[in-house]
TrEMBL record:
<dbReference type="InterPro" id="IPR007554">
    <property type="entry name" value="Glycerophosphate_synth"/>
</dbReference>
<keyword id="KW-0808">Transferase</keyword>
<dbReference type="GO" id="GO:0047355">
    <property type="term" value="F:CDP-glycerol glycerophosphotransferase activity"/>
</dbReference>
<dbReference type="GO" id="GO:0016020">
    <property type="term" value="C:membrane"/>
</dbReference>
<dbReference type="Pfam" id="PF04464">
    <property type="entry name" value="Glyphos_transf"/>
</dbReference>
<dbReference type="InterPro" id="IPR043148">
    <property type="entry name" value="TagF_C"/>
</dbReference>
<protein>
    <submittedName>
        <fullName>UDP-N-acetylglucosamine:LPS N-acetylglucosamine transferase</fullName>
    </submittedName>
</protein>
Length: 467
């Protein structure tokens, strides 16, 4: 593939780690492509990284689009519930808002359209309505004019789940420009998070391909390309690894201690997450009293801005070291919190220099398995659980956890009184999920985790050359 102009589209910041900070750009350029970033975010790609970019300055989507997208999501989940005879899809829905007359009226409108369209034909009607709304916007015309000036050979959208991407991709398709999108996360397909319709889709694995065909019958098999995800590629980049002594010195860690990583969750997924950190601290104290010398590295969820962990951290300063992810807020929404490129190196070394990770249902199980490190999943209720607070046990019932090859793909802690014993067993080598975890990792992320960027460029090359 020679001298093709590829437009890498960031509708929001979630794709930065995969497609701006990895070797993705370099691989594409080595193949003779001219790469331009089509930037709809506040992250200054040219200023920060020196990448050629075209900024999208018109941000307003149609005011009804978010409501129709919510209607679409509910309908897709209703259809899946009926199609697969499975109540789990109901748990993916967010509750309706009945506070205030405006919210009541909007909820009535939304629920009426859901009721009238809860079928696969109804899904197509709502999708057409969304597309019609977005084609009527100034954003559509603005993006169309940019595309007419740039004249790319292909537009590659870095996530399938952003409303900000719809008008831009419609403009490309209406101009006859091939479009390709990447399914961003391992849990997105069953959760009805497919907002865009493109000519082709890059998926992580054969499992995700199968899911796309199950949930979206309007997508054909020849539109789906299994590539893996660049998300895990930095874990295999040995140039990112720092010596233990240097890493510990840089982060004021005790060289005599072995560290357990506690990977924090967002408040929606794990609203009582701070108490699991407290349980881990208590377990570490129990083990240290028996002769171990352990500490905890607390790495918060990058988009968690709460202060809920502070009391636990302050009460356990002697054993908890805080190493914050290198992310920066450039807006008030969760998808306006952007990573720094240096965070890839930081996460690589947190994994490499920790003995294991503990968390609630996070995909960090795969980050650590890539370093041959075990993972403990917390799976018990906290006594602080009360009506109105979400039980974390619901997470493990989600469809994407059914991909585990066995219950040993992670170490599940179902009783906090067993946590210290499980940690001790991992440390002495008698308990591990790494072997089964690697099988799970292969099922979810594909069998060639180091080749995802190459395979995405293979897909891009095949599409533009066939054109």
């Amino acid at each position: 593939m020679i001298n093709k102009k590829i437009l890498i589209f960031f509708p929001d910041g979630v794709g930065l780690r995969n497609f701006a900070f990895t070797q993705f750009k370099e691989i594409g350029e080595q193949r003779g492509n001219k790469i331009i970033y089509w930037n709809n975010t506040a992250f200054p790609l040219q200023e920060e990284l020196g990448y050629e970019e075209v900024r999208i300055k018109t941000q307003n989507i149609h005011p009804l689009t978010p409501f129709y997208c919510r209607i679409r999501k509910h309908i897709e989940l209703n259809v899946a519930t009926k199609k697969f005879n499975d109540p789990v899809y109901k748990t993916y829905k967010f509750p309706f808002n009945y506070k205030g007359i405006k919210n009541i009226l909007m909820t009535v409108f939304v629920r009426l359209l859901i009721g009238l369209n809860s079928s696969e034909r109804g899904i197509l009607r709502i999708r057409k309505r969304i597309n019609a709304l977005e084609r009527s916007t100034q954003k559509y015309n603005y993006c169309k004019a940019q595309l007419q000036e740039i004249k790319p050979d292909l537009v590659f959208c870095t996530t399938q789940r952003a409303t900000q991407s719809i008008a831009a991709l419609l403009a490309a398709q209406d101009l006859g420009i091939p479009t390709l999108t990447f399914v961003y996360s391992w849990d997105n397909v069953p959760k009805a998070m497919q907002l865009v319709e493109t000519d082709y889709y890059c998926v992580w694995s054969d499992l995700m391909k199968k899911e796309m065909l199950q949930y979206y019958p309007f997508i054909k098999e020849n539109q789906l390309i299994v590539t893996g995800t660049p998300q895990f590629e930095p874990h295999y980049d040995e140039s990112l690894l720092e010596a233990r002594e240097d890493f510990f010195k840089q982060h004021n860690l005790d060289a005599a201690k072995k560290y357990i990583c506690f990977s924090g969750d967002d408040e929606t997924t794990s609203p009582l997450d701070q108490y699991y950190l407290e349980d881990l601290a208590n377990a570490v104290r129990t083990l240290n009293a028996k002769g171990e010398n352990l500490g905890i590295i607390y790495r918060k969820c990058p988009v968690d801005t709460t202060s809920r962990y502070e009391a636990v951290i302050n009460a356990n300063k002697d054993i908890i070291a805080v190493i914050d992810p290198l992310w920066k807020a450039m807006g008030k929404q969760w998808n306006e919190v952007f990573p720094a490129k240096a965070d890839l190196k930081l996460l690589h070394n947190v994994c490499a220099h920790s003995e294991l990770v503990t968390n609630v249902c996070s995909s960090t199980v795969f980050d650590f398995v890539a370093h041959d490190k075990p993972c403990i999943y917390y799976n018990y209720e906290q006594p602080q659980l009360k009506k109105g607070i979400r039980d974390i046990g619901q997470n493990y019932k989600y469809v994407h956890f059914r991909s585990m090859p066995s219950a040993e793909a992670a170490v599940f802690c179902t009783d906090k009184n067993q946590l210290a014993n499980q940690i001790a067993a991992i440390l002495n080598g008698s308990l591990s999920n790494v072997s089964e975890g690697k099988k799970w990792y292969s099922i979810v992320a594909g069998e060639t985790p180091t080749q995802a960027s190459e395979k995405i460029w293979n897909a891009i090359g095949s599409i533009v050359n066939s054109k």
